[in-house]
TrEMBL record:
Signal peptide: none annotated. Keywords: Membrane, Sugar transport, Transmembrane, Transmembrane helix, Transport. GO terms for biological process: nucleotide-sugar transmembrane transport. It is a multi-pass membrane protein. Pfam families: TPT. It comes from Arachis hypogaea (Peanut). GO terms for cellular component: membrane. It is found in: Membrane. This is Sugar phosphate transporter domain-containing protein. Residues 15-313 form the Sugar phosphate transporter domain. SUPFAM superfamilies: Multidrug resistance efflux transporter EmrE (SSF103481).
């Protein structure tokens, strides 16, 4: 009887962790998209709250600052997680390069949100498994079984179909999202080597990387967007309420990182993979209901093929992992590490991907 109750509670806890992860993820994406455009449309009712804050570097910087403060509070004040101690030398030799790539990843995600619909951006982000495998094969000369390569076919095909049929296609936004996938893959691969020996969770990762990312991005944001922000403050009808929304997106971005920490510890790897792909579907649906961006039938089919392909890829990877670990003497197939965008959505979206 007690075992049954414990089992039921574990199922409920897993479900609640997934739901709160989805809620924070979708909210961060929607709020960030809202920041970059003129108005928000909710269920076909126009809510003319003009934000038009077209400064992705500054938005990313706000996210990094809020995440750094949030991680400090969680670790040192609330003591929810113990601090993983890193040598000062390793902070610059290991954490700083990771932070640089992490910074590029978040900025590209926010830049893509400015120019392309949420549904298109989320679909392109699903291309990350393919870029990770290709980079590991080209640069690190890792061997992958033919089943891994075959599982990438529907992902690539779905992305191509979605891109060709996208009604709101923007080349700059598309390239930003695509290079964001490459940055995510690079960060994942670097984490495998640079962070070897450190068992980081999402909170400790943000604790060490967000301050470095803020330091890297602060000067470019000031030089490239400082004058524009001053003009925006002088012309916006209600700048203080808009700034509250912008800083609230940073708080939500940290909450997203914390929710990922919770869901990882409450679910299995298979459940996490399936829930991650369903999360993309939820984000696409909600963004369409809110922003009403046009989606053609073939575009929706391409998005669906991509998500099914990502789920199939996760299944194949898990199956090969179980086979290699259960057969003594069988050489292990190098596996693509679970995407850090999913583990840390971000300070923008799947730190798992911000945003």
């Amino acid at each position: 009887m007690e075992e049954s109750i414990i089992c039921q509670w574990n199922v409920i806890r897993s479900l609640l962790s997934i739901l709160q992860w989805w809620a924070f993820n979708v909210t961060v994406i929607i709020v960030n998209k809202w920041i970059f455009q003129y108005f928000l449309c909710i269920l076909f009712l126009d809510v003319f709250q003009k934000l038009d804050f077209k400064f992705p570097l500054s938005v990313s910087c706000v996210h990094f600052i809020c995440s750094a403060i949030g991680a400090y509070v969680v670790i040192h004040v609330l003591k929810v997680k113990p601090l993983i101690t890193v040598d000062p030398e390793d902070r610059w030799r290991r954490i700083f390069p990771m932070s640089f790539v992490f910074c590029i990843n978040i900025v590209l995600g926010n830049v893509s949100l400015r120019y392309i619909p949420v549904s298109f951006m989320q679909t392109i982000k699903s291309f990350t498994p393919a870029t990770t495998v290709v980079l590991q094969w080209l640069v690190w000369r890792k061997y992958f079984e033919w089943r891994i390569w075959c599982s990438l076919i529907p992902i690539v095909g779905g992305i191509l179909l979605t891109s060709v049929t996208e009604l709101s296609f923007n080349a700059f936004g598309f390239c930003a999202a695509l290079f964001g996938c490459l940055a995510t893959s690079t960060k994942t691969i670097l984490a495998e080597s640079l962070l070897h020996g450190y068992k980081f969770d999402s909170i400790n990762t943000v604790y060490y990387m967000a301050p470095f990312a803020t330091m890297i991005l602060a000067l470019p944001a000031l030089l490239l967007e400082g004058n524009g922000i001053i003009d925006w403050l002088s012309t916006h009808p209600s700048p203080w309420s808009a700034l509250i929304i912008i800083f609230s997106s940073g708080v939500l971005a940290f909450c997203l990182n914390f929710s990922i920490f919770y869901v990882i510890h409450s679910t299995t790897a298979v459940t996490f993979n399936v829930a991650g792909n369903l999360k993309v579907a939820v984000a696409v649906l909600v963004s369409w209901l809110i922003f009403r961006n046009p989606i053609s039938y073939m575009n929706a089919v391409g998005c669906g093929i991509t998500l099914v392909g990502c789920t199939f890829y996760g299944y194949v990877r898990q199956m090969l992992s179980q086979q290699s670990s259960s057969v003594p003497g069988t050489p292990r197939t190098p596996k693509t590490p679970r995407s850090k965008m999913e583990l840390l959505p971000l300070v923008n979206d799947k730190l798992d991907d911000k945003v």
